[in-house]
Amino acid sequence: MPDRPRERLDALGPEALSDAELLSLLLRTGARGADALSVGARLLTTLGGLPGLARVGPGDLVCCAGVGPAKSATLRAAVELGRRLAAHRLEPGAPVRGPVDVFQHFHPRLRHARQERFFVVLLDGRHRVIRHELVSQGTLTASLVHPREVFRPALRDAAAALVLVHNHPSGDPTPSREDREVTERLSRAGELLGVPVLDHVVVAERGYSSLRDSGAMGDVSA
Predict the structure, then answer these.
(1) Does residue 91 lie within any of the structural domains?
(2) Which of 89, 184, 185, 221 has minimal CB crowding within 10 Å?
(3) Are residues 103 and 199 in the same domain?
(4) Which residue segment(s) compose the domain that 137 sits in?
C-alpha cells in the first residue's frame, strides 16, 4: 500500500487523504528535521484544525516553522478557492428571492471572518444583482456605516434597491441594538433617495437573521 500522500492521492483519490496529507501536498516541502506531512500536522494542531486555517490573516502563517511567505500564499489561496466553490454565488443578473440567497452567497466567505464586514448588494428594478461592494470593516456603528458610503455605489450604478449584509464573528446571528439602529437610519435614507433598503441580513457561523423577516423594517417594497 503506498504511504506517501501523492501516491495515496493517485491510488485512492483525494477523499481518502487526511487533512494533514492534503496540506502536505500544498506545502510540497518540509522544514529542517520535519517533512511536509509533519509540518502540515503541526500547523493544524497550532491553528485548531481547518476552521482555524480558514481564519488566518496575511501574517499568521509565516511564524510557523516550515511555512514562509510563498507557502502561506498558497494555503490562503486554497482556502479562498474552497470558499468560492462552496458559495452559492450571486453573480450579476442573478435574482435575489430572499435572505436565503444572500446567506448562501456570503456565509462561506464570512463565517470565519474575525471582524465585522458590511456589504451592500445592489439590485435592479427586478431585484437582480448588479454587484455587491464592501462598504466598511470593523465594529458596526452608525458612525462607521454612514449613509453616504452605503448609497454612493447605489447612486453611481443607478440601483433600484439594495440589501444590507454584515457578519457577526461571535457566531450568533441575532441582531444587536446597533444593528437595528443602523438599519433604521439607512432605511430612512433610502426612502429619501428613492433607493429602498429591502432587507438587512446578518450572517454568522450558526446561521442568519433577516431584519425584514423579524419585523424590524416594517413593510418594505421596491
Answers:
(1) no
(2) 221
(3) yes
(4) 99-210
Among 59, 86, 113, which residue terminates a domain? 86
Chain-centroid distance of CA 31 in Å reads: 32
Q: Are residues 167 and 200 in the same domain?
A: yes
The answer to whether 128 touches 175, Cβ cutoff 8 Å, is: no
220 within domain boundaries: no
Query: Digits of tens for pLDDT over the chain (222 positions)?
Result: 346 888 888 888 888 888 888 989 998 888 887 888 888 888 888 888 888 888 787 777 776 778 888 888 898 888 888 877 766 678 899 999 999 999 999 998 888 888 899 999 999 999 999 999 999 887 665 457 889 999 999 999 999 999 999 999 999 999 999 999 999 999 999 999 999 999 999 999 999 999 999 887 865 554
Q: Please, are residues 1 and 16 in contact by the beta-carbon 8 Å criterion?
A: no
Domain for residue 10, yes or no? yes
How many whole angstroms separate alpha carbon 196 and alpha carbon 216?
A: 15
Q: Are 182 and 139 in contact (CB under 8 A)?
A: no
- To 10 degrees, what angle do helices 147-156 and 177-193 make? 40
Residues 78 and 56 in one domain: yes
> Reduced to 3 states, what is the DSSP secondary structure of residue 182?
helix
Q: Any idea which residue has 450572517 for its cell?
A: 203
